[in-house]
Specification:
Shape: elongated
Structural class: alpha/beta
CATH superfamily of the largest domain: P-loop containing nucleotide triphosphate hydrolases
Number of helices: 6
Number of strands: 10
Oligomer: single chain
Order of helices and strands: EHHEEEEEHEEHEHEH
Bound molecules: adenosine-5'-triphosphate, magnesium ion
CATH architecture of the largest domain: 3-Layer(aba) Sandwich
Strand content: 15-25%
Radius of gyration: 22 Å
Number of domains: 2
Helix content: 25-40%
Length: about 300
């Protein structure tokens, strides 16, 4: 089947050949079909879907005009486009947290703006925005946030304590108030909104210092509490519609508890795709973290 972007074919796998064989042959198929690329996917047992593209849609600059309308669903949000031009949606429902990793200037904060821009019109979503960089990046977004803070650790600790208290209160009240034990069974509402906790430059808050001086000990105690608060929000927040998004330049330097807890619940974005702009294939890493490598 041909369309204006390329060619799609669904083929019954020939005896003895599997998806890997078709993927290996994708380059030859692309040459034969006059395509820049061919992608092979398993559609069903024994069925391979081949998608050939005449040009790479991700190389073209893309502009997004957000509608300002209340999103039709809070089950997922729109991340960008996949290589075949289809939309890539990231699941929100039943997700306890995500980690977005990438070097400076790779678009992490812009990703938050894109997310907030889509969800902000909904009265069933509230934001907690923490910017560890402490600069002006979030100044336009803070007015929409329920709580916001920059890089003052004590202020952030106080803010996270409030969110943690909300979580504990919701856990204590959910069965009585909503009549269910998982808020996602009903979906977020203005009276029980989804709370998205964004912590940008998250490594700022989890960095312990070495030494025994009193101020070092006080700093490390603060860091330990921040770490515990985030870990518990990730571990216990999902069923009461609280979700944590950690953004960092050093995903590997994150404290193991929050990092592992969040990555463990990362949903597979399907089909995998690419964020707008030139740092492409990171969204395809549907595994555990969103990592935008500049080189792709
Ligand atoms: N999808 C995009 N398309 C085009 N330009 C983008 C896109 N995302 C980000 N940019 C631009 O790239 C620059 C860096 O983006 P951003 O501030 O989001 O990076 P970052 O990963 O948060 O960096 P840092 O770690 O330094 O905070 C910005 O000037 C932004 O306008
Ligand atoms: Mg940033």
């Amino acid at each position: 089947m041909a369309d204006d972007r390329g060619v799609t074919a669904t083929v019954a796998a020939i005896a003895g050949a599997g998806l890997a064989d078709y993927q290996q042959a994708a380059g030859y198929l692309a040459d034969t079909w006059g395509c820049v690329s061919v992608r092979a996917e398993q559609q069903a047992p024994g069925l391979i879907r081949l998608r050939g593209l005449h040009r790479d849609p991700l190389l073209a600059p893309a502009r997004v005009d957000l509608s300002g309308m209340v999103p039709a669903s809070l089950e997922s949000w729109w991340l960008g486009w996949a290589e075949d031009g289809s939309l890539v949606m990231v699941r929100l429902a039943e997700v306890s947290g995500t980690v977005v990793g990438g070097l400076a200037g790779f678009g992490k904060t812009m990703l938050v703006a894109h997310l907030v821009g889509q969800l902000a019109p909904s009265p069933a979503v509230q934001f907690v925005l923490i910017d560890g960089k402490g600069g002006p990046d979030y100044d336009q977004l803070f007015p929409r946030a329920w709580l916001s803070a920059k890089d003052d650790l004590t202020e952030v600790r106080d803010l996270l304590r409030r969110v943690h208290r909300l979580m504990a209160d919701r856990q204590g009240a959910i069965a009585q108030v909503l009549g269910v034990t998982d808020a996602w069974h009903l979906g977020p509402s203005p009276s029980w909104p989804l709370v998205v906790v964004v912590i940008d430059e998250a490594h700022t808050f989890f960095h312990e210092r070495k030494g025994t001086a009193p101020e070092v000990k006080a700093h490390n105690a603060l860091v330990a509490e921040l770490s515990r608060l985030v870990e518990e929000l990730v571990r216990k927040g999902r069923n009461v519609a609280i979700q944590v998004m950690l953004l960092t330049q050093r995903a590997t330097g994150m404290p193991s508890r929050p990092a592992s807890a969040t990555t463990a619940r990362w949903p597979s974005a399907s089909p995998p795709g690419r964020w707008m702009g030139p740092w492409p294939r990171w969204a395809r890493r549907s595994a555990s973290t969103l990592t935008p490598p500049r080189s792709c």
